[in-house]
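Hi there, hope your week has been kind to you so far. Do you reckon you could talk me through the fold, stretch by stretch? I've dropped the whole record in just underneath, so have a look:
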Amino acid sequence: MSASSLRLICLSSFLLCAVSAPAQEGHPTRGVWVGYWGPASAQSRIVVVMDHDGKTVSGVLNPGPNAVPLKVARLDITPGTPSPKQGVPAILPIFKVYFEVDAKDAKGNPIAIVAEGTMHNTALPNRWIEGTWTQTSGGKAVKSEFKISRQ
């Protein structure tokens, strides 16, 4: 086999793998999600890793030495409807994401986190979730917006 034939075979194999890679997305919630929660003046960075085993959503908040498992996680889908006739747009499904986390602050005090959001661009790799983040510590609840994007 000549060197040029071998190069052509390698290039073809590479291109076939590269074309099929985006199709391996999996479940819409699966992946690493990075973003912020809180008011624009004092945002806190968050990282959420979510997985789906075919039945349930699971994951962790801020992976690493201080990772906290998601206590409750789910994806609620409201089905859409196809276009009834030409010229009338279809109604797209709505993907609602919900998760709860029991964490601790730097002093070891408990923090309860509840995040509820809507997933956007669900069929595309650059999807994001935005919604409401409620963090309760010491009886005081702080409610703000959050936005995380899939990496």
Observations:
- Residues 15-24 have pLDDT under 50 and may be disordered.
- Residues 3-20 form the longest helix (18 residues).
- The two ends are 41 Å apart (CA to CA).
- Helices lie at 3-20.
